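Recap from last week: sequence in, structure out.
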Amino acid sequence: MTAQNNIPSLEGIDYLPYLDAEGQINSDFQKKVGVYAIFDGEKMLQYIGYSRDIATSLKQHFMRQPEKCYWLKVETIERPNRTFLEEIRQGWMAENGATPAGNSEDEEAWTQAIDVKPLMTAEEKENYELSGGDELARGKILKNIARRVEAEILERLKTRGLQEKLRFNPKLKESGLLDLK
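Predicted structure tokens:
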């Protein structure tokens, strides 16, 4: 029997709400290894990923794409095996009939830290350009922009019903990046 025969059907896995009744991101998968599929409010597949800590990955995705994270399906495995995880992910994509946007043209928005530079206001751009090559000044400007964008993100997450506290990595802010710690 090959590993292919052991791949669970995506359709056969129950939908789980992304947020529980208390506004917390599903924590049943802390420190759990596995594959997960994320669906929007209409249960349209948005992204399929795998992780050594599914709960942490779910937080990252929710912070980056809150409007696309309403439902999930998860398959955990006992022993980490990247090849098997990738086989499950590919199997689910094949079962879906198409690669979700989050695994193709929108992949960066799902998997990379948020770059705040494109989100600068006209005034912020002007201050950034006026700072010239002064890296310390630019770092402070980027940190302030990152704080503003972080506040906007946290407000969006609160609107979505999130009650859980998320902590952003303070060291990345001076580089103009936002990611969870």
